[in-house]
């Protein structure tokens, strides 16, 4: 049975905590870039602060309603609900260990990308640990135009949702040298 993809609701703290608790320590580390044993309350509140436009979150559920994947897109700072100014957002995805490499992450990323486009976002950026080859492969396969650069501890992957025509050459160079 195909997983159900639906928006995460603000009141679903239990679902979120259960999902993160069931991730292996390694998967939690890859998602949060830190060896967190439990989801800190401040992170839980941030992940549940969704509005469907500037803060989009989708959950993938197995047939029994268990959360098996989660993706977030958070519009860059400076945006507000009335008049979003930012057209760039950060994306992060996690898939339950037993469901990895089964297309769940791809479905989540595809669906959230369409919602991001509809919300006026034209650039998605992900901070991915270099050892997270599955996430890097997913982003490389999913997005036609992709910029990558390294910082101290992560690979910064930027996807241009509507192609190079939507971004200036100066912006591309700035991303590559920043």
From TrEMBL:
Ranges for the N-acetyltransferase domain?
Answer: 3-162
Is Repeat tagged as a keyword? Answer: no
Alphabetized SUPFAM superfamilies for the sequence:
Acyl-CoA N-acyltransferases (Nat)
- Keywords per UniProt: Acyltransferase, Transferase
The record ties this protein, via PROSITE patterns, to: GNAT
Asked if Oxidoreductase is a keyword of the record, the answer is no
Name the domain of life this protein comes from. Bacteria
Q: Name one Pfam family in it.
A: Acetyltransf_1
| Name of the featured protein | GNAT family N-acetyltransferase
């Amino acid at each position: 049975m195909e997983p159900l993809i639906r928006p995460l609701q603000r009141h679903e703290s239990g679902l979120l905590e259960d999902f993160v608790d069931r991730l292996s320590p390694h998967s939690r580390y890859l998602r949060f870039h830190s060896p967190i044993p439990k989801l800190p309350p401040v992170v839980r509140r941030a992940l549940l602060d969704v509005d469907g436009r500037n803060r989009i979150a989708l959950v993938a559920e197995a047939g029994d309603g268990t959360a098996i994947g989660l993706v977030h897109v958070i519009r860059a700072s400076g945006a507000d609900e009335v008049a979003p100014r930012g057209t760039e957002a950060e994306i992060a995805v996690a898939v339950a260990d037993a469901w990895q490499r089964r297309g769940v992450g791809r479905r989540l990323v595809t669906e959230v990308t369409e919602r991001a486009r509809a919300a006026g976002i034209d650039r998605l950026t992900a901070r991915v640990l270099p050892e997270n080859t599955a996430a890097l492969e997913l982003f490389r396969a999913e997005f036609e135009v992709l910029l990558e650069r390294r910082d101290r501890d992560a690979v910064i992957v930027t996807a241009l949702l509507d192609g190079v025509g939507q971004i200036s050459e100066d912006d591309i160079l700035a991303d590559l040298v920043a």
